[in-house]
C-alpha cells in the first residue's frame, strides 16, 4: 500500500480557535479522507505548538501556569476537531515528552556537527514586550507592538548556520519545481528572502523559560520555530528507539500551511533537514486566509464567533462544504454568514437535497421503493450515464492538483445534471402510461445510481451527509461508477439541508 503523510500546521493555543483555523484543518481532512478512499495508507497529523514567550505571557495574565493554560485550550481544540469530524491519525503536542526529547537530540546533533554555534544576539529590545526588533521594524523609532522606547541589547544565543545551506536550497528548488505551491509563493521566497542572502538564525533564547531547555546549556530554551517544525518528525519516532513510523512515512507528502508561514516551511525547515541529512518533504502548499468582513478574524474587531455556533446553526457539513467550495484553495476568501447561507440554499438544499428528496419520493410513489434497472435506453440516458462514469477520473485529476473547490464543483455539476435529467425525462408523465412502466423505473434507477456514485465521491468532503444519503437509498455499494444490476429497496427520504430564510 502506498503511504501518504499529510500535516496541518500545529496551532498556537494562545487565542480562541476561529473559522480560519477550521478552514485549513477541514481542507487537510478532506485530502486525507480522499487519499484513504483511494487506497493510500494515510497518516494525517495535526496538533498544538505550546511553547514560547507569547504563551507564557498569556498564562501569566490568566494567573495560571503555562501547562495549566495550554491543557485547557488543547482540550477545547480537540473537542472542536471532533465536532468538525476531523479524522486525524495523530494529535501532537509540543509538550509531549517524546517530542521534547527529539528536539533536544536534534539541537545537540546540530551543535556537535558544527551547524549550531554560540554567539551573541544584537538588536533592539522592548522590555515590556520582551521582544527583539531591527531598526526597520520600528514604528517612529518605537516598539511596533506597544509604542514604548526600545534600547540596544545583546543576549547570548545559539545560531543555526542557514547561510551555509543557501546554495543547496536554491538547487533543491530548481530540481523540485513542485516543492512549493502555488508557484507565486516560491517566487516570493526566492526574491524576498533567499536572493538578498540568508542570515544565520537565532535558535535559542534566555529571557524566558517556557520552552525546551538546551540540554548542555540550560539557561537557554530552544527557539519556538525549531521546536515546532520538528513536530513533523518527532511524532514518527525520529531519533527514538522505535523509528518504524519515520521509516515508513517520511518524507511528508504534503505540508499544508498558511501563506504567512510558508517561509518557515520552505527555508528553515528544509535546511534543518539537509543538516540532519534526511529527506525533504515532497510538497508545501501555502493557502490563503479566510477574511471576515474584509479583515482579520479577532475578538477585538468584533467579528469573532466560536465556529461551533455556525455548526449548531447550520450543521457540520454545511460549514465543511463552505470551507472547501467557496474559496479556490490557495487564494484568500471572504467568510460571511450570508455567503454560507447562500451556499447552503443554492448548492446543498436546492441541488443535492432536492435531488435526493425528489428521487426517493418518486421511487416510493411509483414502485413502493423497490427499484431495479429495466434496461431502457435512450440518448439522454446514455449521455447522463456517461457523465456519471467520467466523474471519478475528473475528481481525481482535480484532487491531484489540490483543486478541491473544482473537484466539488464537478460533483455538483453531475448532481445538477441529475435534476435536469428529471426535468427532461418527466417521470410524472411516464407514470400516467402503464406501458411506460419499465422506462419510468429505469429513469429512477439511473437517478439513484447517480446519487449513489455522487454520495460516495462526496464522502471525503461531507462525511455525515454522504452516510445519510446512502442510508436513505439503503446502499453500501462503494463503487465509484455506474453499476447496471443493483437492486434498491429505498428507505423513507429525510430532509438533508433545510433552506434557510435569510430574514
Ligand atoms: O502559525 N484563514 O500557528 P497559528 C486561514 N504555531 N488560515 C488561518 C487564519 C485565517 N483567517 N488564521 C490562521 C502557527 N490561520 C504556528 C505553526 S507549524 C510547525 C507552526 C492559519 O495558530 C495560519 O495561516 O498562528 C496557520 O497556517 C495556522 O492557522 C496556524 O496558525
Task: Note the topology.
Blueprint: E1 3-11, H1 19-37, E2 41-48, H2 53-61, H3 66-83, E3 90-93, H4 97-112, E4 116-126, E5 131-133, E6 151-160, H5 166-175, E7 180-181, H6 183-194, E8 201-202, E9 204-205, E10 221-222, H7 224-229, H8 231-234, H9 244-249, E11 254-258, H10 262-276, E12 284-287, E13 290-292, H11 307-314, H12 316-325, E14 333-335, H13 337-367, E15 370-372, H14 379-400, H15 404-425, H16 427-430, H17 437-458, H18 463-472, E16 487-489
Parallel strand pairs: 1-2, 1-11, 2-3, 7-12, 11-12, 13-14
Antiparallel strand pairs: 4-5, 4-6, 6-8, 9-10, 15-16
Helix pairs in contact: 2-3, 6-10, 11-12, 12-13, 13-15, 13-17, 14-15, 14-17, 15-17, 17-18
Ligand ME8 binds at residues 9-12, 20-21, 23-24, 49, 228-229, 231, 257-258, 260-261, 289-290, 297.
Amino acid at each position: 500500500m502506498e503511504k501518504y503523510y499529510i500535516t496541518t500546521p500545529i496551532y498556537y493555543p494562545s487565542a480562541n480557535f476561529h473559522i480560519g483555523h477550521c478552514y485549513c484543518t477541514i481542507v487537510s481532512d478532506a485530502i486525507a479522507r480522499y487519499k484513504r478512499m483511494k487506497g493510500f495508507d494515510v497518516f494525517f497529523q495535526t496538533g498544538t505548538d505550546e511553547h514560547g514567550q507569547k504563551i507564557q505571557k498569556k498564562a501569566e495574565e490568566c494567573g495560571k501556569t503555562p501547562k495549566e493554560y495550554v491543557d485547557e485550550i488543547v482540550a477545547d481544540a480537540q473537542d472542536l476537531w471532533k465536532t468538525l469530524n476531523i479524522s486525524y491519525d495523530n494529535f501532537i503536542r509540543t509538550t509531549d515528552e517524546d517530542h521534547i526529547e527529539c528536539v533536544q537530540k536534534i539541537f545537540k546533533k546540530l551543535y556537535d556537527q558544527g551547524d549550531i554555534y554560540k554567539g551573541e544576539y544584537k538588536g533592539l529590545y522592548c522590555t515590556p514586550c520582551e521582544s527583539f526588533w531591527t531598526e526597520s521594524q520600528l514604528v517612529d523609532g518605537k516598539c511596533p507592538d506597544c509604542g514604548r522606547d526600545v534600547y540596544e541589547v545583546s543576549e547570548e544565543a545559539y545560531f543555526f548556520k542557514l547561510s551555509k545551506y543557501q546554495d543547496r536550497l536554491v538547487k533543491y528548488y530548481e530540481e523540485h519545481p513542485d516543492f512549493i505551491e502555488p508557484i507565486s509563493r516560491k517566487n516570493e521566497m526566492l526574491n524576498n528572502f533567499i536572493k538578498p542572502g540568508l542570515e544565520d538564525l537565532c535558535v535559542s533564547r534566555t529571557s524566558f523559560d517556557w520552552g525546551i531547555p538546551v540540554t548542555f546549556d540550560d539557561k537557554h530554551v530552544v527557539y519556538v520555530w525549531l521546536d515546532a517544525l520538528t513536530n513533523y518528525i518527532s511524532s514518527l519516532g525520529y531519533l527514538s528507539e522505535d523509528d518504524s513510523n519515520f521509516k515508513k512515512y517520511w518524507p511528508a507528502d504534503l505540508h499544508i500551511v498558511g501563506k504567512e508561514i510558508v517561509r518557515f516551511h520552505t527555508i528553515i525547515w528544509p535546511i534543518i533537514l539537509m543538516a540532519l541529512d534526511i529527506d525533504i518533504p515532497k510538497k508545501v502548499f501555502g493557502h490563503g486566509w479566510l477574511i471576515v468582513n474584509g479583515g482579520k478574524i479577532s475578538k477585538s474587531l468584533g467579528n469573532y464567533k466560536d465556529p461551533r455556533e455556525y455548526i449548531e446553526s447550520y450543521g457540520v457539513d454545511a460549514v465543511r462544504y463552505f470551507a472547501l467550495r467557496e474559496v479556490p484553495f490557495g487564494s484568500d476568501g471572504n467568510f460571511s454568514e450570508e455567503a454560507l447561507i447562500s451556499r447552503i440554499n443554492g448548492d446543498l438544499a436546492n441541488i443535492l437535497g432536492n435531488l435526493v428528496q425528489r428521487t426517493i419520493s418518486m421511487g416510493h410513489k411509483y414502485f413502493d421503493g423497490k427499484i431495479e434497472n429495466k434496461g431502457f435506453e435512450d440518448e439522454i440516458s446514455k449521455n447522463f450515464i456517461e457523465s456519471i462514469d467520467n466523474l471519478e477520473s475528473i475528481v481525481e485529476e482535480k484532487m491531484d492538483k489540490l483543486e478541491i473547490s473544482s473537484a466539488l464543483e464537478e460533483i455538483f455539476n453531475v448532481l445538477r445534471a441529475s435534476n435536469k435529467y428529471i426535468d427532461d425525462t418527466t417521470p410524472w408523465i411516464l407514470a400516467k402510461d402503464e406501458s411506460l412502466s419499465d422506462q419510468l423505473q429505469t429513469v429512477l434507477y439511473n437517478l439513484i445510481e447517480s446519487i449513489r456514485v455522487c454520495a460516495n465521491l462526496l464522502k471525503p468532503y461531507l462525511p455525515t451527509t454522504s452516510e445519510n444519503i446512502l442510508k436513505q437509498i439503503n446502499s453500501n455499494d462503494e463503487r465509484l461508477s455506474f453499476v447496471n444490476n443493483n437492486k434498491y429497496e429505498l428507505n423513507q427520504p429525510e430532509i438533508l439541508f433545510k433552506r434557510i430564510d435569510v430574514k
